[in-house]
Target: A-type ATP synthase subunit C
Amino acid sequence: MSVPKTEGTSNYEYVTARVQARRAALFDDEDYRKLIRMGPGEIARYMEETEYESEVNALGSRYDGVDLIEHALNRNLAKHFNDLLRWADGELYEFVARYLRKFDAWNIKTVVRGIYSDADSEAVEEDLIYAGEFDRQFLERLVEAASIEDAVEMLDNTRYGDALAEAYEDYDATGVLIPLENAVDRTYYEGLMSGVTETDNRATQLYVEFLQAEIDFRNARNALRIARSGADLDPADYFIEGGELFRASELSQLSSGVDELVTFIRDSTYGEDLSAALDELERADSLIGFEHALDAALLEYSDHLSHVFPLSICPVLAYVLAKEREVDNIRAIARGREAGLSEDEIENELVIL
Model:
């Protein structure tokens, strides 16, 4: 992390108050409706009138159009999450820092996907988010890796090294990225849950409850991806430990049929939270739609925990998710407009509560 850990006790009141102010500045549905009707240049100018002003102005002489929007979004995201680390003390810092390692996982998967699809390294670099532990210099070298095998070797001395080396054999045999991406996710979530599950501390218990829901949703998403990929892979081999909803053996059985998986989730404790996601999956048979609905359900769940436990880690993590959603939505709109998609097609790409 670029922000060093501070000593002292957790300062939940201070950090949640700052987070509440930041949430109030996030784009709402009306902002998205306006952006959908704009071209990339107009979107950049609209952002200039918001809290993205400093990033757009700083980058405006080097980039334009979608490139300017992409760079401004990623720089703004990193700034906001580094602010969280600057504000937080003690155990709260540790919780936030662990959670923000998700951007290391994001960056690894982005690089691997870029190499797999033979994408231009500059285009891959535009999608990186510098909010995790990996520094910019390392990520710039990683983007230049000539092959996935080279990238895996470069990650050998990181927390992801052993898992990726093992998963590379499955990737090499199947030609699909699922083993590598799952190895990254499993390493990330195992690191999150390490040493925090056995505790009487209510703040830590809330942190664990939030992560358990995220892991459950991730397992459901992965099971469906494997089922739809057609690859000869057992979902149990890619099960992420730490959730509450599935056992590995159940996931393997349930993923063979979407109907069985949907019924299982409907009958679980998440049935109400995921009702819209499951309806979308059944109605449109769309994995992308289901994944967007899962993201919306996790946002709603995090907001629910934030309202019930306002002076806890929950509002902070809910803010991280909400800020990510804003950036993802603006990016989807800009790319959709550049690609000439219709307003309805772009709206289908957004996660809106």
